[in-house]
Amino acid sequence: MKSLEEALNLRNKKINKIEKMKSEQNPMDFIKSFEEFCKGKYEETVTDSHTKHFLKCLGLYDKGTNDTFVIRIRIPGGQLTIQQALKLSVASKKYGNDYIDITTRGQVEFRYLKFNELPALLKDLAHVGISAHQCAGDNFRGVVTSPLDSYSKTSPIETMPLLKEIQSVFYKREAWMGTLPRKFNIAILGDSVNTCNIFGNDCAFALASKDGEFGFNLYLGGKVGVQARDLNLFVKPDQVKEVFDAVISLYKTYGFRDNRNKNRLTFLLDAVSLEEFSKSIKEYSKLELADAGEMLVKDEFTLDDSSSIELKDNKSAIHFGIPSGIFCGSDLKEAALLAQKYDGVIRLTYEQSFYIITDSSNIENIKQSNLYTKYDSYHNIYFNNQIACAGKNECSFGVILGKPDAIEMAHYLNKNIPIKDGKVRMYWSACPKGCGIHGVADIGFEGAKAKDEEGNSCYGVKIFIGGKAASSILEARQLTKAVTIPKAQELTKELLSIYKDEKNENETFESFDTRVLSHLEIEEIQTRIGL
Question: Which of 43-47, 280-284, 438-442 has the lowest mean pLDDT?
Fold first, then answer.
């Protein structure tokens, strides 16, 4: 591991202020005294840097004031039990104005929280086996997998047991509480269809096969704007936990702690090379790891016009498209009661929506429910595969509103150029940080300041096309400079006009990527939409 030591010595001559702070107090001490802290004079310290760091270890963010907080709640694999869903419903109404965000990791967030009520909220969540521990700051985000795990016809490995093994390495363990150089995202996928944005994670186990055995190829270093890279290692299911432990131990020990903008795992990989890090994994884990097998994650998820998916063993999943992930506790209660009535389960998705999985014979009954009828009004290709980050009203980095812009765009397109039986993934990020993962979208929007016709500054976006969620190569290309939101609507309508014109109506299904992006050069697309 000499190369890792050398890279560490070159970069970590001066650590950043957050790292100094970490050495001054143990987050576990703060967590143990959290309830008493909330009863004290928290107003004086709740927004200082130390307290912010420790709050993030509890999944809590402040909103720049003493009385407005956000909590990110860990939902492993996006799998909610009925009891958990009902508890979240009650809690969101009791503490968070009945508001719920479904995130791009299949987790949930509450907003509008009062600080002195946070201990009671955390206790309520603990009663049903969920928490917000380590969901923010320099910690491990919620581990993701396919929402159809164990049900999908294209999934030879059930990954939830392995996900729990991964989580057991760090979850609520003092040695891993707020001690990483930066945040760390994890995914494991036992399906050939990429239903969890597998390559956008720091550590990703992607379905593969070698010598007739199913397992995973290891990919590392993904983050917003950078896809994870192949470590040329094949990991058997019974090796996953040890390999993961090796990866995060190496990162914790040798990861950079100087410039926080360049401290994610991908920068360590750049410094030491993939080959050297792969050797270090073998050395640390003492496992006999073979070279990578055949990578089987090759397809992107497709939802047809029926909004349901046929699964194994006479099961089906019915999709509830939630515009930009803006949900509420009242509707989550209805979803839980529906799932309970029809002996189903709830699965959250990275595209900020959810499924109810049940016997196929129940699907038509669920479609008659009030909840399905409510969200069926959003059932079109512009809402089916939509993502939007929190936006400027909720995030200090946001340039545009984000979620409202995405919803308005979808309504505009459905009114002006309705298309049935197709697929277009439209993802929105309110700033260049890219939390709405616009870089892997068919059509991506990045918030930016633009100029209107009078030359006045206004909200706008840069438009990108051609991103690939199912590829370890990021291919999004910038189509426009910053344009106003109304102009972006017009240009996107023209893009979809190409799709509608080129689409083979005799085919049962053709995606925007298949029909437009795979056939036309960007210059031709720009010409056809009038740029």
Answer: 43-47
